[in-house]
Every structure is written in C-alpha cells, then in structure tokens.
Amino acid sequence: MVDRGLIKAGGLLDREARRVESEALLSVDRVVFCSHFMRSFLTSRIPGLESRNSKVIPNFAAPPCASTEGPAGDIITIGTIEPRKNQEAILRLAAEARKLGRFYTVTIVGSGELEQELTTLAWELGIGSQVTFTGHVENASSLLHRHRLYVHAAKMENLPIVLIEAFSAGLPVMAPAVGGIPEILTDGVEGCFWETRNVQAAAERLISILDDEPLRSRLGRAALATYNARFRSDRIADQLYRFVTDRTELCAPTDPEYSLR
Asked: Which of 28, 31, 33 is nearest to 56 (CA)?
C-alpha cells in the first residue's frame, strides 16, 4: 500500500499495520512462511519472531482447467496492473524483440490503476496491435495453456502462486530473480531469469526460447515435473497437516498443560 501511494511510509496507518502484524505473528502457536525470503524478511524486523516455532512451506496450486476460449498467443502474464507488478517492463521487452525482427503477441490479464497508461505505452512503443489487455478474468489461469511462455516482471514477490500455476500448465517461465522467485525457478531448467532493466539482453533470452521449440518444450516439461515434485496441493497439504498436528514441536516442557488451541 505504501508502494502504491495509498498510505504514507512511516505514517499512522503504516505504523499501526506493522504493530498489528507483529502482535499477530508473536501470538500464534506456529508460523508458516511461504518462502525462506519472507522468513528472513519478517524475522529481521520483528524481534522475537525468529524463536517462534515455524516452518517454510511453499505455496501450492491445483492445475488449471484449460480454456477453449479467450486470447491465445506467445506471451502471457497475469496480475493486478499496479507499479509493483511492473508490466511496463514486459511491454518494453516485446518492443525490443520487435526491433530484432520478432513479432510476439502479449496477453496481459488483470486490472488496476495503470491499465490505461500501459495501453497508451503499448501504442507508443509500436506494439499496440500485438498486445491484448483482457481486464479482470475469472479463473485467469485457464488461459495459460493457450500461450507458449509465461513472463513475470514484478519488482518484489514472496512466492507467487501464478508461477506455480504456469508450471502446472507446462509453461516455461521468464522471471526476475527477486524475493522468493529463485525458490521456485531454477535458471536454465524451467525457464530463465531476466533483468527487467536490461531489455536488450532479456530480448535475446526471450528469442532464444520462443524461436527454439525443442528448448521451449524441454523447459515446459521440466516446469511440469517441478510442479509435480514440489508444488502439488496434496504434497503441500500433507506438509501442513504434519506441521500443525505435531504436538512434540508445540508443547513446552515447562508448561505440560499447553495444547493446540
């Protein structure tokens, strides 16, 4: 909310939100962090949190049902159209690829305060006819199967579920190595990292995937394999259940009456 200018950094609402966050996390029996990145981030700013009973258990997703309707093409990205999601970088990436002679279509799924600004930018970059802005779409992940590559450009993330959904659809992923994303994506295995401020180098990586169908297919198969091995709902549910119900980790020896609430 601070990044979007909705509240002032260090202001009353920001301070109160941090107080409530700290109070809530320090009062629970156990804490589940979706990424090692978020555990490190929160324990560094909330004194005492590091000693709480906690575990890193990643986000998960069910495989999306493939839609037979809707936009189809080369690149898809899904998310609220706001500054942190940084869809502007994806437009500049597609424009750079066009300078190199590649006409890739881009589907931007989501709505938000920057939608009109990005629409204008697409036409200014000369790629307006290549870009589809869908607005909000229910079950947006159903569109993943209709595209060849998922591209993410967020400036910061915890452990984005949409990348897991892309893996489950067998799509290779291009994403920046920020936040918890490196805990999902391995460069050169399920896709690749890209530097959103270096669109020339990124465009070359984009072309190397989309112009090499055997490589793209191999990356997609690896993405699906990673999903099945690490992010399937049943696998994560089992981890969560075992963590929550393991009373040996919860009961303090100095308090024999302590029990799971």
From this structure: 33
Q: In the predicted model, what is the mean pLDDT of residues 182-208?
A: 97
Query: Is residue 249 very low, low, confident or very high in pLDDT (cuts 50, 70, 90)?
Result: low
Boundaries of every domain in the chain: 12-60+234-250, 73-228
Q: Using alpha carbons only, how large is the chain's radius of gyration in Å?
A: 21
- CA–CA distance, 110 with 253 (Å, rounded to integer): 50
Q: Phi then psi for 110, rounded to 5 degrees? A: 140, 170
Residue 254 has pLDDT above 70, yes or no: no
pLDDT band, very low/low/confident/very high, at 195 (cuts 50, 70, 90): very high
Exposure string of 174-199, with b = 16+ CB inside 10 Å and e = fewer, is bbbebbbbbbbbeeeebbbbbebeeb
Specify the CATH superfamily of domain 73-228: Glycogen Phosphorylase B; (3.40.50.2000)
* C-alpha–C-alpha distance, residues 2 and 4, integer Å: 5
